[in-house]
């Protein structure tokens, strides 16, 4: 059997984060080492507790290393609780975990794991990029140690919070800039792919019914307790599980259509309207932009997740 890809997920759970984490934990291609929570969809105190609750409840053998409670330079101070619910998990209430954080903070944890896994570690970043930027700033030699950073964030088209900026990049544009200027191999699942590849509500409901399992019910509740709803490219009413596209790309990049582009992050505060924009510019590419994904493959990942956690009570 192929060697699993060692992965850390930097995350702000977050309904779509929770689904992305579950898909990663269920994949036989991924060795999920740890989660590093960050301030984002809801206050960091909640994203951290949600991460602990998820690994405890699902029995995922992964560390949780404490991340950032604020942004790199400018405090953002606004949250997406209207989309993800007050505490970030939509309508789902998980038992409160009393697990402890790993002894290292997120930036030191990522660095130590990068050293341990010598060029193999993939960092999947599905929240604002604060922890990731802190890692690069505090441990500059990590630039040559990571295999790739695969992000959900940004857009090559319009934004979802402002006309130009996507939420994760808007929360902490200076952090996104550090990442895009790092020279680390990057891949980006932006709104240009995530908005058209929502998972159909009917598909998830059928999956829950057929499996009759607790996990099937949980997936169904998660997508219903989350208000990012769009008609997907197949014409179905769907839940936009943005963050899962980044995980799907890591599991099998051959199922995605991509292009190499140069992206710059707009951090000039005087150009207020475009703050946080991920702009495609001319020049040497610095990022693999994910443009599309095979939906049959994507649905299969949800089936696999339900099978994997089917024993859950
Ligand atoms: C991104 O922002 C958050 O609301 C989601 O979890 C996702 O990571 C989408 O813009
Ligand atoms: Ca997220």
What does this protein structure show overall?
The chain is an alpha/beta fold and 313 residues long. The protein is globular. The protein has helices at 15-26, 44-58, 81-84, 106-116, 130-138, 167-171, 173-180, 191-194, 201-211, 214-224, 242-251, 295-308, and strands at 5-11, 30-37, 63-64, 122-125, 148-152, 186-189, 199-200, 229-231, 237-239, 256-265, 278-281, 287-293. The protein has twelve helices and twelve strands. It has a single domain, classed as Ribonucleoside hydrolase-like (Inosine-uridine Nucleoside N-ribohydrolase, Chain A). Calcium ion is lined by residues 12, 14, 16-17, 41, 126-127, 243.
Concise structural overview:
This protein is an alpha/beta fold and 313 residues long.
């Amino acid at each position: 059997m192929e060697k699993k890809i060692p992965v850390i997920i930097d995350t702000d759970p977050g309904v779509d984060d929770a689904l992305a984490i579950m898909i990663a934990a269920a994949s036989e291609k991924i060795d999920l080492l740890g989660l590093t929570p960050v301030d984002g969809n809801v206050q960091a105190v909640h994203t951290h507790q949600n991460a602990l609750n998820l690994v405890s409840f699902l029995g995922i053998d992964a560390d949780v290393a404490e991340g950032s409670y604020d942004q790199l330079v400018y405090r953002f101070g606004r949250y997406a609780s209207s989309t993800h619910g007050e505490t970030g998990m939509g309508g789902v209430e998980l038992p409160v975990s009393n697990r402890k954080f790993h002894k290292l903070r997120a930036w030191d944890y990522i660095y130590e794991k990068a050293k341990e896994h010598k060029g193999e570690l993939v960092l999947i970043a599905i929240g604002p990029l604060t922890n990731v930027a802190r890692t690069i700033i505090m441990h500059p030699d990590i630039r040559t140690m990571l295999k790739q950073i695969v992000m959900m964030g940004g857009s090559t088209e319009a934004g979802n919070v402002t006309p130009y900026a996507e939420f994760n990049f808007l929360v902490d544009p200076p952090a996104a800039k550090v990442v895009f200027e790092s020279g680390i191999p990057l891949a980006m699942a932006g709104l240009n792919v995530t908005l058209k590849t929502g998972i159909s509500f009917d598909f998830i409901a059928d999956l829950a019914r057929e499996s009759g399992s607790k996990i099937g019910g949980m997936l169904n509740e998660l997508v219903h307790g989350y208000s990012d709803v769009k008609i997907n490219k197949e014409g179905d009413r769907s839940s936009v599980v943005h963050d899962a596209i980044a995980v799907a790309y890591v599991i099998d990049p051959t199922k995605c259509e991509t292009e190499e582009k140069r992206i710059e992050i707009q951090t000039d505060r005087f150009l207020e309207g475009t703050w946080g924009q991920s702009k495609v510019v001319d020049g040497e590419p610095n990022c693999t932009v994910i443009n599309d994904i095979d939906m049959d493959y994507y649905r299969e990942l949800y089936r696999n997740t339900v099978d994997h956690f089917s024993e859950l009570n």
